[in-house]
Structures are given as structure tokens and as C-alpha cells.
Design goal:
The protein is an alpha+beta fold and 191 residues long. The chain is built from 2 helices and 13 strands; from the N terminus they run βββββββββαββαββ. The chain has 2 domains: 98 residues, no CATH class; 72 residues. Helix content is 27%, strand content 31%. 14% of the residues are buried.
Amino acid sequence: MLVRLTDYARLPNEFKSNLRSCMVSASGWGDLSTERIKARTATLSCVLKSGKAIDIPIEGYLAGEDSKAGLAGLVVTRSGGVAAKATLAGFIQGIGQIGQAIGQTQTITPLGGVTTTVDPQQALTSGVGSGISQAGQTLSQYYMNMLTQISPAIEVAAGRHVTVIFTKGVELKLPINEQNSENQAHLPIAA
């Protein structure tokens, strides 16, 4: 994630630091139990009016508009359509098995074995049923494999207002606060 800072950094004892237009990079992961994206900060990058740049590692996290750790999102799972297709394929397999069974006769031998014979008049029905059953089984297996690979995701829209919370102090080596803090202009981007 990339966060553009739009306000002064609020420090202890009512001090402020001009970090407006600086960028914070963060990485996150989804937490399904809370339906939030948890994000940890990685670097703070600023370019000064003099053209000097700072890019330092930082420790912290992102909080959402509700001031809770992480960003609330929408859980999206795309397994519903695949599950419906797997169910339909299983139904087709069952219909095929019925067609296959219509053309077959099973008899039990005196030794306890089972003999299956196909009635010549029902051979076509049995063959079509067997083919449909096999196709349904293949489709059903295909969709079941897809279901094991699909996992839910949490979507978070861009352009949201978040709070970057530093968990460890950072010393800015360059004179970032010597810029004209009354000027509302953004920091220039160095080429």
C-alpha cells in the first residue's frame, strides 16, 4: 500500500511536524475474523524543496476511519458460482447413472458374485447414460478442484482517509521542518 500524508504529524506536547505530501509504504494482510486489512508501515519517503530526499524505515501501523487498527473492508468470495456448477455437474452425473442403470440387468451368481449384463434393446440408453455420467463426474471433479483453490478476499477501496500510527520514534536527519510550513503547496517531486 502507498499512503500519501495530507496533514501535519502530531507529536507529544502539541508539537507538529510538516510531513504533508510525504509517502508511507505499508504492507498488509486480510483478517477474515474482523473483516479488516491489517497493515504495517515500512518506509517514509519525502522530497524537500532543496531536492534532497529522505527514505527511512519506520515502524507503525494503519488505522481506519473508525480509529481501530486496520482498515475495514468488504469480504468477497467467488466460490458461489463454482459451487453451483459443481452441484449441477453432480446432478448430471446422477442422471447419467440412472440412464446407465436402465439398460443393465444385475444377477447374483450361486457363489455370491454379481454379473451385470446389458439388454441389447437398451444398449444405446446404457451407453448414453454411461457417457453422461462420466462427463458429469469429470466436470464435478474439475469444479471441486477449483473450489479448493478459491479463497475469500477483503477488498478495500482506494482514496480512504487513514491514520498512520508510529510505534517507534523516528529521527529525521534532514531539515524537513525548515520548509515554509505556512505554504500549502505540496513538496516537489524530484526527477
